Structure formats: C-alpha cells, structure tokens
Amino acid sequence: MPDYGHELMFGTFTTPSAKDPQHAVIIAQAAEAAGLDAVTIQDHPYNSDFLDTYTLLTWIAAKTSRIRVAANVTNLPLRPPVVLAKAAASIDLLSGGRFEMGLGAGGFADAIKAAGGPELSAGQRVDALEEAIEIMRSVWDTSRAGLRHNGEHYQINGLRRGPRPAHEIGIWLGAYKPRMLRLTGAKADGWLPSWDYLKSPTMVESNAMIDEAAIAAGRQPSDIKRLLNIGRSAIQSDDSGFLQGPASQWVEQLSELILEHGFSGFFFGGDGPDLLRVIGQEIAPEVRSVVSKARAGSGVVAPRPSAVLSKRMEGIDYDSLPPALADRAIEPGDFRYEGVRHSYIWSGRPGLVMTPETPEEVSAAVLYARAQSVPLSVRSGGHGISGRSTNRGGIVIDLGALNGIEVLDAQSGLVRLGAGARWSEVAAKLGEHGLAMSSGDYGGVGVGGLATAGGVGYLARKFGLTIDHVVAAEIVLADGRIVRVDKDNEPDLLWAIRGAGGNFGIVTSFELEAYPLGNVIQAIQVFDGADMASVLERWGALVEASPRELTSFLMAVPGRAEQGPMAQAISVYAGEDTDAAAEAINALGDAGPILDQRAYLTPYAGVVAHPGGEHRGGSAVIRSGLVDHITPDIAARLSGILASGVANLVQIRSVGGAVNDVSADAMAYPHRTQNFSLTAAGSRGRADLLDAQWAELRPLLKGMYLNFETDTHPDRLAEAFPEPTLSRLRALKRRYDPDNVFNLNFPIPPAENLREAS
Questions:
Q1: Which of 57, 458, 517, 662 keeps 20 to 30 A from 126, CA to CA?
Q2: The pLDDT of residue 714
Q3: Does some domain include residue 696?
Q4: Complete DSSP assignment for 646-687
Q5: Same domain? 284 vs 315
C-alpha cells in the first residue's frame, strides 16, 4: 500500500470524563505545549459519565491557540446534521480554522434508542450517514442558494446555507465494514479506525476497498487521509509489542505505517503529560524526518485533491508553478476559492489565484503568468469599481499577503505601506502615532489600487489625494525586475504610477508622507430630495464656500415605495475645533429640507472602519466624471438620471482645495481644477439606458477619475489622461511594458514607434 503523501498529524484520543471536568482541557493544553497537532474527544452522548463533547471541544478551542480539535467520532443519530454543521462551522470560525469533523454512523443502538434517538438497522444508519455528509457540506457551501434535501432520513426545505467555516473542514469516518469503507472512499475526506479493531491483514484489505471506491467515484485514493486511533501504548526500555517499547521502536513502527500503509495521522490514548511530551518533542520530529527523507527519495509529494484537479482550466500550466508559489496557489475546487474569485463589483472565475508574500515572489508570479496563454489581473484589495482585479479563466496575482504597515519616522510622518494592506488597518496604525492619510471612504479598499490611481477621500480638501503624498515605491516590472522609484531613481516611473500605476507594473509597497491629525468630526445630513436638482446645486455651492477642513460626499437615491427621493451628505471636518466644524456643517444644512442630522467626534479610523467579509461579486455599471462646479444644468441632468430609474444612486464627492494646489503635470493625475467627482450607478441589464443619459451629460464633464468607472473602452483614456499626459504615459509604457502585459485595467497602449515615444 503506497504512501499518499499527506502532511503528518500527531494528537490525542481523550475520554471526556465528567468526574474530572478539567482533565481533558489540561491534556489538550499539555498536548499543545508538547507540539502535538490535534486533540480528539470521544463522543457518547448517552453516557451520563461523560461531558458533552461539543461543549468540551468549544471550551478546549478557547483555552488553546494552535491545536486542532475533533470529535472521535461524532454520534450522528443523536445530532441532526444541520445543527451539527452549524456547530462545526461555529467552532471553526471561533477557533480560526481548527475544527475537523470525525463522524460515525452510530454504534450502541440500544443506548441511542434509550437517549431518544431513532431505532435504525445498521444499513439504515449508513444510509443516514451518507445523507448527512451531503447535507453538512451543502450547509457549508454558501455560494449557492437555499438548501433542499428530500431523503429517506432527512428532509430540508429551503434552508438558508451557512455559516461558511474558516477552512475546509475534513469529514473523517470511523469505518470497518465493507459498506462503510466504500462510503469512506466515495464521500469522505478521512478514514479514522482504531488499532485495537484493525490488524495488519484487515488494514491492507480495508485500504484497498477505500481506494477502489474512490476510483469508482471519480476520485483519487489520496483524497482520503488515513488516520489511526492507538489506545494502548507505552514508552519503555523493552519491546513488548506494537508501540510498547523505546522511542526508536515507535519511530520505526509509525514510519512503517506511513510509508507502507498510507497512514498520516495518529491519535494516542495515553493521557499522561510526560507521554505527550515525548511524542511531541522526540518521536514526532524524528518520524517526520524519516518520512521526509523517504519521500524525497521516492518522489512522493503532497497530493492535489481531485476536486481541484478536475476543475483546472485550459491555457494554464499548473504543474510549472514556481515552488514558492505552488503551496499557496488557489485553484477552482479549492475551499479558499470562493473567498478570492470575486471582486467587490465583478463576479469572477479565474483559473488560478497566486498569493505571493514577498516582492521576489511577485516577480516569479509575473514571469510565470507571462508564460501562460490567459489574462492577468492584479488585486490589492479587490474593491476596485472596474472589477478588473478578477477575470474568467485567467490568472490573478493577489497582493493581500503584502500588507505591512510601518511608521518609518513618526516625526516627519514617513510611512511604508504594503500594497495589500487595507485602509482601515492603515488608519488604525497611523492613528496610534497621531497621523493620518486620506484614503477613500471605505476601509476595505486595498492600498495598491487607491495609491496608484488617486485617492479621493474624506480628507481630500484639506490634505489632497493619496497619491499626492507618495514619495517612493517598490515596483515589479513586466520583465520581473524589482525597482525602487523615487525622485532620484526612475523619477519618470514615479510620475507615472501616481495616477496610472496599474499599467506599469505591480507596486508592492509605497512610502508616503502622512500628516498629523487627531480626532475628526463626522456629520451625516439627510435631505428631502423632492427638488433634487436644487439640493445638488445648492450643496455644491455651499461645499465650495466651506473651509478646506470640510470634505463632503453626497449620495442621492430615487424614491422607493412610499418613500420619496433623498440625498445623504457625509461630511468630515479635519480637526477637533467643534465650533468651527459646527458652523461649516450647519451651513451645508441650507442645501435643502433636512430630514435628519447628527455629528460626532471620532478618530479618522472610525470614519473608514471595515466590517470585513468576502467579496461576493456583482453586476453594477458605474459611470464617472469630473466637473469644476455643480451648475444648474449639471444638477438638472443628474436629477433627471436619478428620476428616470436608470440609476439607483448618484454620488458627488468634493475634491478641490488641497487637491488643486498640485500642478497638473506633477504626476499622471492631471485633474487639478475640478471641485467635484460625479458617479452614477445602475444595473448591468440597463447599461444602455444609463449610457444614453450619461452621453447627454458628458459634454459638461471635464475629465474622469478611472477608479469610479466600469467602462474600460479606450475612449475613456482620453478623458482620464488628457494630452499631453496620455502621450507621455504611452511613451513610458513603451519603455517599461512594451508587450502590454498589464493590459486589463484601463490599458494604456504603448507608443507605436521610438519617435512617438521620445
């Protein structure tokens, strides 16, 4: 029987005695301290001498920090699968992904019946177990709609799925007889028998039966981990049998089980801390060393699950992934895939997501991606409006692991930010030093996407755009080179990435000059929008007349049901002068009839707090433009777009102030006269209607901010980069990315000839 190549696991098999409730907890803590990997607890709900296993597992998870927990094995007949799935996911989420599901069909039929469980034959219990496996996995699969199951033992009618666990919970079956072994091969993630019931001939036959069933189900035998409970063991000087001898004997016998019989996990029944210490600190490391050397010689590697291999896409050579990236690569079929496939506003189905952790790994990822015949997307936070941080059938380089936040000099405000950091995290860290950085209006946005395009945030009128404070960066170019850009090194590239960065490479980190800022005052004002055009026009004029400390964003929505149209202004006064803030905020109240108003003092981090959660994709269409003023004509057209129903919201963000103090040619963002950024959002199904109305507004616009636009048509480039900016960018594109490798997110075509590029 072969070695399946699984990661090795060593743990305990503990009795949950109610006579000494803390004993199992103490053993779990001792196991963790000894370096063991898991603690598993017997589950006999009908036994009055035992604690409830799932309550105990939750308690153990809370009292430990690293070790995995599992029932060994769960008595299914006394635990409905929906409730069991929810309990498992809950423990997994609370523990940070440390729960595994040991599951059994249910022995001791009389005891189960006495506890109120169903009276089932052995065959019926297996049938119920098979149904339960399907139900539990379906509960955890939140990518699909309501759950329905009409089985012989369980009926579910439209259950809302979830919660989704923190990691892919393995389902390990305690199985001995042929039908249970075949079910293990066809459906389970692990086989978990006990040594006392499984001797060598039976072990070989059982493994073969599992393998045959796996192949018949379209799986690989390596999809099923082989785990083993070992009840009686002792470390002693003389050899008295299996695991009854010196540590060297243990190493030899456990290594044989791994290399010749495919086992990879062992749960020991001895409850003595000394035994656990020897296993964790002496035996397990030596077994791992022996197995590692044997695998290196035989070429055995960690297996890729069938669920992943079966969903690989054309155009990607998965087997040639650089080793440093392969272990963390995410493919369709991987449990982690749902969490990385979509962006905020775009549903994606990439063929591969790479998650580099260093600039060198980003370089390797770029060179690998260039050799494939599929699109390449780059993601820092995935919140980008254009949605081009994902794709269908291509590769995504996800920078989420490059999320460092470092204050280099608190006095000068110099900070270094990883491209994958989120702005909520940045705000919190900088706030500890009395610093801040304007960063959009949502803390879940990644640093990289914002700091290469603009950064229109709640501090813009006082402090300018995010890119206005970028003084240096580290960038991986299309040829894999890693370069530093600043005023002395590649200054042209520094100019380009501040406004059009996604076209020139992958920025892995930025150096910015943050500024001192304590608390701010945030205000929310809600206006009656019955005369929406008047509200928009007056609000715009009042914002322009307000002090620079005040930046205001206004969102207008159409009437719904019995509620009329409304406009909500969220304003931030960059300072703690409450009297000045009140005067400025109250002045905005003259924009229209006020329905609600409130204000409060808060750290800037409170303004951009991030609730967390995964991106779910979407189908919105958003149009963007910049204007100097909200004129009566512009206000009327925006109001008309909203009233027509082709847009579900219109937003106006104030810029101007410090934004316009910067020269138009200082960087690749040239829009330094405009006071407002406009956006309108609608559904993809009504995009043509929105486009028609936006086309009537376009002659009144003066440029466009790409981060708020979903239309990536080349015509938009001239709006975002009016001449001579676009020509300069094309020339630099020819120098730094002549093959147009970075070509998904509003691609800038390289200059066609050297004269044009000069």
A1: 57
A2: 83
A3: yes
A4: S-SEEEEEE--GGGGGS-TTSSS----S--EEEEEEEEGGGH
A5: no
Nearest to 698 by CA among 606, 590, 626: 626
Strand-strand pairing, 68-71 and 225-230: unpaired
Please state the domain count of the chain: 3
What are the structure tokens assigned to 615, written together?
């991106």
Quote the CA–CA distance of 453 and 498 in Å, as a whole number.
Answer: 6
Exposed/middle/buried for residue 757 (C-beta within 10 Å: 0-12, 13-18, 19+): middle
Write out the DSSP string of 276-344: HHHIIIIIHHHHHHHHHHHHHHHT--PPPPHHHHTT--TT--GGGS-HHHHTT-B-TTSGGGGGTS--S
- Verify that 622 and 530 share a domain, yes or no: yes
Angle, alpha carbons 438-439-443 (nearest 5°): 135
Return d(Cα 717, Cα 720) in angstroms, integer. Answer: 5
Domain residues for the domain of 353 are 306-398
Structure tokens at 96: 């940070």
Cα(422)–Cα(405) distance, rounded to whole angstroms? 10
CATH of the domain at 161: 3.20.20.30
Co-location of 527 and 654 in the same domain = yes
Q: What is the pLDDT of residues 27-38, one digit of tens each?
A: 999 999 999 999
- The per-residue DSSP string of 33-70 comes to HTT--EEEE---TT-TTB--HHHHHHHHHHH-SS-EEE
Tell me the pTM.
0.90
> What b/e sequence results for 446-466 when a residue is b if at least 16 CB atoms lie within 10 Å of its CB, and e otherwise?
bbbbbbbbbbbbbbbbbbbbb
In this predicted structure, what is the pLDDT of residue 758?
46
Looking at the DSSP bridge assignments, the partners of residue 513 are: 414
Judge whether 450 and 440 are in contact, CB under 8 Å.
Answer: yes
Tokens of 506: 């992958």
Residues of the chain short of pLDDT 70, as ranges, are 1, 199-201, 617, 619, 753-758
Model confidence pLDDT, tens digit, residues 400-435: 999 999 999 999 999 999 999 999 999 999 999 999
Whole-angstrom Cα distance, residue 182 to residue 188? 10
Residue 33 corresponds to which tokens in the numbers above?
A: 């301290």
CA–CA distance, 396 with 331 (Å, rounded to integer)? 10
pLDDT of 42: 95
- Residue 24 domain flag: yes
Beta 99-104 vs 74-75: how paired, if at all? parallel
Closest CA to 623 of 385, 344, 347: 385
338: tokens are: 């749902």
Partnered with residue 475 across adjacent β-strands are: 483, 507
